[in-house]
């Protein structure tokens, strides 16, 4: 039974040597417990924060202990009444091939309703983040211009599509020409910009958004966000969803002072942590499921195969190797 533990706290960008694969016996399910076999593992940028010895919004991972993330697992033995053998569950579980659980925090997922892996993406944490971040904080109105950074990823692809469904003009910022094409062909974005090859991002945003930016769904922070803010409209809303461009920085970078723009444009900036909006999950999931069934929403996944490759898949998030949701299939 393989287990992945945090070997060292990453300094800057995570490295494979920060992780170690160890072995333990497959545990026995005691009375009241279930034995789970891991099927799909979600790797997510926020896990980087939990690898530091600081308290972000969730406690840090402990050294030499298994890492946890969103996982889909199959119940292979059950000694409790809520789950039976053959059920699939979703929950925050450990990076282990097999583990036991008393079922706390686990939800059954139905593979006849949707692809199992989609419960880690569009019907899971990242889909909810995109939908609720945009609708609750971005407050989109028909005809407005929405710009999304990190647009080619799990959250970004959904945020942009939801913006289109709600009548916005949608522009994406992403890190490759392949993702630029994907955004405008598959995901219905009106326009997309490659921040890695555009010589002047501020000007590129200006020409993609001739009427200015009314909503900026920010997944990345840093210089990309500075370029967007230079084009912000009066009364714009700015849901701060993530800041991946800053997660691996070992020193706090200094940027332009943006207060005069925020002030004179009366911009509302609001960060959010998706877990704090949990009471809105059932209605949001219902809407996302309905759009998916009606083919109004689509999704991409980058699937990496093999338990041993979980750390590599996680690191690849910081290299932009994923299109849509990054998932490891065991
Ligand atoms: P993604 O699927 O978007 O994967 C990460 C992507 O970020 C990469 O593919 C890469 O794409 C981009 N990226 C990596 N490094 C940089 C960089 N230095 N500058 C700009 N872009 C970079 O991940 P998620 O959709 O899961 O998450 C997106 C963001 O949302 C993250 O910041 C995450 O922390 C945040 N988040 C926040 C939640 C909340 O509760 N607030 C919940 C879930 C996610 P590219 O090719 O474009 O560079």
From TrEMBL:
Residues 14-328 form the Enoyl reductase (ER) domain. Keywords: Oxidoreductase. The keyword Oxidoreductase applies. Pfam families: ADH_N_2 (PF16884), ADH_zinc_N (PF00107). GO terms for molecular function: oxidoreductase activity, acting on the CH-CH group of donors, NAD or NADP as acceptor. This is NADP-dependent oxidoreductase. It comes from the Bacteria. It comes from Polaribacter filamentus. The keyword Membrane does not apply.
């Amino acid at each position: 039974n393989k287990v992945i533990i945090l070997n060292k706290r990453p300094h800057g960008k995570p490295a494979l040597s920060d992780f170690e694969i160890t072995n333990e016996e497959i545990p026995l399910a005691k009375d009241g417990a279930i034995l789970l076999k891991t099927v799909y593992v979600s790797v997510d940028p926020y896990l980087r924060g939990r690898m530091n010895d600081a308290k972000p919004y969730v406690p840090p991972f402990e050294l030499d202990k298994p890492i946890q993330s969103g996982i889909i697992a199959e119940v292979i033995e059950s000694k409790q009444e809520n789950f039976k053998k053959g059920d699939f569950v979703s929950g925050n579980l450990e990076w282990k091939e097999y583990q036991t659980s008393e079922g706390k925090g686990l939800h059954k997922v139905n593979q006849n309703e949707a692809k199992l892996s989609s419960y880690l993406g569009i019907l899971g944490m990242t889909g909810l983040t995109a939908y609720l971040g945009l609708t609750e904080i971005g407050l989109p109105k028909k005809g407005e211009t929405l710009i999304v950074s990190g647009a080619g990823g799990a959250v970004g692809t959904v945020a942009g599509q939801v913006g289109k469904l709600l009548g916005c003009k949608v522009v994406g910022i992403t890190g490759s020409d392949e993702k630029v094409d994907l955004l405008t062909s598959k995901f219905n974005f009106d326009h997309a910009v490659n921040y890695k090859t555009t010589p002047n991002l501020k000007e590129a945003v200006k020409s993609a958004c001739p009427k200015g930016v009314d909503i900026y769904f920010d997944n990345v922070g840093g210089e990309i966000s500075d370029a967007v803010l230079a084009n912000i409209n009066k009364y714009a809303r700015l849901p701060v969803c993530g800041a991946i461009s800053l997660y691996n920085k070992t020193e706090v970078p200094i940027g332009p002072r943006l207060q005069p723009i925020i002030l004179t444009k009366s911009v509302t900036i609001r960060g959010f942590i998706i877990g704090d909006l949990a009471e809105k999950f059932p209605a949001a999931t219902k809407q996302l499921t309905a759009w998916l069934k009606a083919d109004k929403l689509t999704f991409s996944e980058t699937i990496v195969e093999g338990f041993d490759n979980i750390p590599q898949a996680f690191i690849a998030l910081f290299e932009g190797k994923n299109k849509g949701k990054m998932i490891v299939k065991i």
